[in-house]
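User: Okay, second chain of the day. Same drill as before: sequence in, structure tokens out.
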Amino acid sequence: MFILRCLFTGLASVAFALITAHPLPAAARAWPAPVPLNENFSGITRVIDGDTIHVGDTRVRLEGIDAPESTQTCKRATGEEWACGTEATHTMRTMAEGKQVVCRNHGLDKYGRTLGTCFVDGRDINREMVKLGLAWAYVKYSVAYTTEEAEARRTKIGIWQGEALPAWDFRARAWTRTEEQAPAGCPIKGNVTANGHIYHMPWSQWYDKVRIDGHPNKRWFCSETEAQQAGWRPAYR
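Assistant: Same drill. Structure tokens below.
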């Protein structure tokens, strides 16, 4: 019995040493527990942009809408440019930042984000963004808000008051433009800061400020999946 106890103690010590010597990557340690499909979850919100929020530890992509990217501009009826992306982010922050939000889980998108219909004080904030003309109904994936989009278009508010490139086309153009210039066609920039390992998409407001100059704390990625599997997180744009 004494020998067995010694053997068990020795194995436990080895296991502890291995775990402490080779901890899980930061991304694995921080990855939140999955939210059950078609069930509600809630938490205090931190807004990323006009269609992406953090609800507690869960990163949520608002289902059925696509808001202008933070760096995107649109045009008024006069042809004057206005910062529609900044306005969309500001409006979402006014509605949800620091507030208790309840979301319905619709599964995961291709980047691993939870797709959600989210409510603040019973108000569907996905719907509100489309009604205010600060997001498109993302009909490629959902027709939930086409009625609201039609009304916003009729009254010419927000993105409908003049020319506005749909956010999905804006991202596609930015990706194509930077893909042609990036090494091996991998346009996502990653760098290490005091806030951790962060990657920047070509339409991020910080993208042009990050210089990939051969420094060991900076690198290129070909996809968000590759960046996340390496333990990097997206920039809070």
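Residues 169-234 form one domain.

User: Thanks, on to the next one.
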